Amino acid sequence: MSLRALLTAATGMNAQSQxxxxxxxxxxxxxxxxxxAFRANFEDLLYQQLRPAGTxxxxxxxxxxxTQIGLGTRLVSTQRIFLEGSLLTTGNDLDLxxxxxxxxxxxxxxxxxxxxxxxxxxxxSEGTIVDPNGNPLEGDITIPEDAVQVSxxxxxxxxxxxxGEEEPQTVGQIELAIFxxxxxxxxxxxxxxxxxxxxxxxxxGTPGEEGIGEILQGVLEASNVDVVxxxxxxxxxxxxxxxxxxxxNTADQMLQRVTQLx
Length: 262
What we know:
The protein has 262 residues and is an alpha+beta fold.
């Protein structure tokens, strides 16, 4: 019996250790633009059935409840929470945020598309709109060298005001992607996500139409990590780890007493 308790407590300690890892990653990214917090989900393990429910007792009556001994817990998934972060006004023409659902599309060096909520964009040496790692925004949008002002509409229309002209000219269109199950996207670092079989194929369209969010210019979306909530989770995980550790010590002491019997 004590040996089973040792193994069960060990699963609890391992699960809470992983829970702390998730919380630590959330807190570490509290100032990461567009970051979405993760939540650890747990499930119980198999049960050892000592007496099934509904069996016949020695007196001839039916046992209403059975006897099952649980074998612990495990981390089953880390779920990304897609609540919108607060909006930070920067005034930078190429700082963009999405109000509502959607992701910016970033072209990777291998030609594949990655997705992000982080709208920290700049221009490269050729005037192309790129992310902080130099990867271009999908659409190959290039701003003319003699442009004195860039504007991005709610619908993603990019316009540039050329020096000496009165009216701006349209230079490109930013489209956003949405997913049936955004929680199924794969994090690959650099604020980027990749589609998976769980997320489904991207649905690409014009911002502000068919359930796709709007684009705000001169604004960045902050991380949606709530530090107070994460600290509470950290304390809960620490206490749960300590309780499982105490169970481990108690089971060890019981097992030691049994081995000392003469």
